[in-house]
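Example 3.2
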Amino acid sequence: MLPKDRPAVILMDEILSYASTYRKRGYGSRLYNFPDALGETARGEKNVAVVVSIPASELEYTPEDVADEQRFKKMLDRLGKAIIMSADVEIAEIIRRRLFEWYGMPDEGRKTAGAYAEWVIEHAAELTGIDADTAYERFQASYPFHPSVLSVFERKW
């Protein structure tokens, strides 16, 4: 029974991981039916939100995963509204807050980003993938990580 005076949020994270695992055991339709029924129930309540995440990365999808993703998206679009939770610029901030006590860019970070940017500018002819004109901004935005590390996080996320 859900409390009537307080909001409730139900989170189903990485639903395709479950779909892939349980499809092999013959429970694929049951897993699909659960968020469908849960969403329909929540739609009738004023204080309930159901949040379902489907990974954006399709790097390791099987054809069955693609079909399940399309099926879940269609059902979820019917029940609610899709929201993209992070954009390129936000990735660094999300990771920093999860891994560190982050209170903004420290002076050390500005110095480090500046040093990397200077090095990139000096070696621009030898490098690919990093624009010398935007190097300082990219290093500062991704600090304490290299922009390439965040690119990997984003693709795998």
